[in-house]
Amino acid sequence: MSVIQACIADDVGWLQLRQALWPGDESDQLREMRAFCAEPRRYGNFIARSAGGEPQGFVEVALRRDHVNGTDSSPVAFLEGLYVAPAHRRHGVARALVACTEQWAREQGCSEFASDALLQNTASHAMHGALGFDETERVVYFRKRL
User: Fold this and answer.
1) How far apart (Å, rounded) are the C-alpha atoms in residues 115 and 68?
2) What domains are defined for the chain?
3) Angstrom distance (rounded) from CA 30 to CA 42
4) What is the average per-residue pLDDT within 65-84?
5) Which of 132-141's residues contact partners 24+ apart within 8 Å by CB, and which partners?
6) What is the pLDDT of residues 8-31, one digit of tens each?
7) 109: part of which helix (H) or strand (E)?
């Protein structure tokens, strides 16, 4: 397995993996990917591939300068998305992807790496813990229509 920076917005493997995590309009996905590639110091995008070139997983991280719950510094690297194809899970793919984003975040001057997960997504909570993240707080969001 190798992990490389995703910097070509029309990378078919990256698009396929994104579609698996966030099903939606392909043109919207490509537009967002192009925007990420245009700002490599704000967004880090990495793809894990097998020796034969098969896409195994991807990670996207963004620098956030606004307040990030549970952190004390700015900017903060924020894990926006992480996905490993089912056939490649439990083989260190997520760990390798996160290691690349951690290095990228250090190069951008970050001292903290944050993420979030829905309260009911216990599999994500376990994965975060296995990757070295500490839970900082739980929150429920509210809204009121006006």
Assistant:
1) 9
2) 2-130 (3.40.630.30)
3) 17
4) 94
5) 136/69, 136/70, 136/71, 137/69, 137/70, 139/69
6) 876 889 999 999 999 999 999 999
7) none
